[in-house]
Structure formats: structure tokens, C-alpha cells
Amino acid sequence: MVEVGDVDQDAARWWAAVLSTETGTTGTLNGWRASIRNDKGALLCSPWSIAVSCNTPFVVVSAEQQPTPSCATARTTSTRMTKTTMTTTTTTTPSLYTPAPYRMAIRYLSEYCRLHAISRQSEAALAAALMIPIAKLDGARIELPSPKPRRDGAPAAAAAAAAAASSQDGQAYLPWDEEVGEKEHSQPPDRLLTLSCHPRGAKALLSSIFFQPDIDCNLCGAWLQGFFASLDSEAAQEPQLRLWTFVRRDPGLAFLWLGAFITGAEARCVQDARSGWWKTDLSSAAWTGTHVSFIQGTVTKPPPAAAADISRADECRLMYLAHGPTHAVPPLFPFAPFGRTALQDADLDVRQHTQCPALHRLVYAGFVWDCQGGGQNVKQGAGGDGDADDAALIRVKTSELSRVAEVDDTIAVDYSGLDREDGDEISEMVTRNIFCWLRGDDGYPVAERALRQHEWINDVDSDDDDDDDGPGQGREDSRSLFGDTRLSR
Question: Positions of the region Disordered (predicted)?
Fold first, then answer.
């Protein structure tokens, strides 16, 4: 039974439709559908449409506890209501009524949450709803516990208690409440819904907690093994503790991680991260200020005139910023390449920009919504052309993985299950990919002959001729290339 309080017939009809558990007379799809037509007339379904697997129908109850069965979306409910009773009749005409507009639906939800004093739970519910497109992307089912009926009578007492609490320590605002100014919302609902419409981007944000900016590609496998040794420890099996661990890595993603744990989306994220294979998305990263890849970093300021090399990470950044035909797409993996490249062996665009005094980095310029009628809604980004550091644009991740609880920061971690070969396989995969991205077009300079011949890379096709002579100034050998990120200079 769903108690909606003292509502008018439009609200009762809306609740009955939303809570319906069948579609049409066949019952082939449980739930409701929301769709629109695009410019070409094709039908587009809402990314948050769901099918409810529920054999028990919901019953809508008004102010005087009169039950109102929920109707199918192929039917409509004609409601007559007074202060004391509400009765319903159903017809088979599907289009007598139009859905409640956005602002009216928001009002219905807000009134319901205030009636039952569940503002905090409404935040969690919104977080879970935002993860529905990710569940569809992963082909996963969302399993939620059945709602439990109230045992303390009408919700009036709860509402009164909530009002009293609000006057003392501040009742949580509703995440969609338009009465609260935008400054109170860290992420207004329209932006959250836009992000949710891009499930690959939202999932990339979740997976970004497994990326550590100061870990290079040749050591990322060992880093991930250590990360999961901590997560697999007995003390970290409690779901709330695991959630806290993830949130501490990047508190700015706490809202999304809460929804992921409610819907079960975190399981696939963890599975992908164990194999070192997750996708990055620079658009969602820029929009939320999340550090998802080394490519987002700022290129080091021009070195002294005597300097004759550049870090390969900066080399990658400049090549991506130059946006040549073979580097218009960012590297697949987030971990940076190790070592340095002699400037005389670098690409011409790289050499040109290393001497440029300007700041070289990716900057979030803004976001544009295309509106009905041909208008646009522009949201300017925080980035600019000044000398502000990365901290103003990208949140810093914490490395305090052991501090998964405030009361105990000395949790024992069992490293007996670490497999060096598994870690090396991940490092090999990521290293081969980033060097293929960096050198796949022009080939390897002579100075990197030892690197090219290393077993992690030597099966990559290349057009370069290892026997050619050249003026490269490489200083690495194959023993030092993959064993340590600190190379000799």
C-alpha cells in the first residue's frame, strides 16, 4: 500500500499510473513507458524506463486510507475524491489523459517525501535511478528489497517530527526541489539526468577511482593488485565499508557510488578494474572535474634551454593537443608512459610546443543544450587561459587506501594472493597499448631500439627500421625500461 496523503484526482491518477505493474491486457511488459519522437519521427524511449518483476500490485491510498488499485498504463483511472473517501473506476480508453508535466510531477514527489519524512531516502532513490542506464548498458537486472509498510499508523507523526528536526539541525532538502536555490545543489537534477543519459561516461567516472595519477603504465598491474588485496581483505567485505573506501578515493563521486551500490552496478566496475580494462571518457570527466587519465595533466613548463628531452607523458599530451590524424583519439588506458624522449627524436609539433611559453592542457570550455525552437542553453566551464594549476580543474585523489574506517586505520591486508604474473600481464597490455599509440605512426627512433625489442612490445607491427642510424640520444636499456619508473638520466 502506497499512502500518498490528501491529493487531488490528477495526483492520484499519476501515482496509479507510475506504480502500475502491467502494460496492456497481455502483461508482456511490467511497468510504464516514456517515449518521444525525434526530428525524423523515430521513437526514442526514456533511458530510465523499467520493467517491474512484481506479482503483488501496488495499492494507492489517499488521506482516509481508501485503497485505490494502480492501473495499467494502457488504461486510465477516473477518480472522484472528497476529504474522506476516494473511489476509482477504470476504462479501456488509453489516451483520455496526458502525463503530468515535469513541474507537476516534481510537486507530487516532493509532497510524498515530505509526508513520509524521507528526504534523505529520496536522495538515495535519485542516485539509484541515475544508475538505471548503466544497468541497461551492462545487461544487468536491478534487484531491490520489497517496500515495507509503515507500522506506526498515518505518517502525520513522522512529518511533524521531521518538521521539528528541520528547525533544529536542517532537514535534508529534496534533490529535485525547485524551492531550493541552485547554490544549494552541488549537482542540479538537470545536469545529473544529462550525465545519466551518457551511461558510458557515468561508468567511466565510477571506474576512475582505480586510476592513480603517479603510477606509470609498467607498474599499473602491481598497483591494481595491491588495491584489490585491500578490497578483498576480510575487513573490507562489509558493503558499507567498501562504499566508504570508494568514496574516500574521490568524494566528488560519492553520490554516483551510492546509486551504484544500491543497483549493483559496482560489481561490473570492480570486475573490469581487476583486469585493468575500463574505458575513459574525457567529456564526463571535464564536466565533473574528475581525474580519469594522465592525458588531462598540464604539460610541464618549458625547461631550461640546456634541457634536451621531454617526458613521454608530456609528449603524449602535446601530440593529443596537436590533434594530428593519428592522435585525435586519446589513449585507451589512463596510465602514463614512463621515461623521457630526446627532443630531436620527438614529433615536430612536440618540439614546437615545448618552446612555447603558453600553458598546454585540456580545458573545459562549457556545455551546450540544444533546446526546442532552435535556442541553446550554455553553461560555461571553470577553465580558462590563465596559469591556474590543475587543482582548480581536477579533483585530487587520495592514496590513503588503508584508511577505510575512521575508528581503525590499521586494518590488516593479506597479500598472499598476489600473483606477479597476473600483474605483469596487465602492465604489459597497458604498456604495449600506450606505446603503440605514441609510436604507431612514425615508428620508434633509434634511441628507443632496446624498448622496441622488449618482449612486451616487440610483437607490435612497426614501419621503423631498427638498423637505421640516427642522432637519437636514448639512454635506457631493456633491463631498466620496465623494472622502475625512475630512469637514469
Answer: 458-489
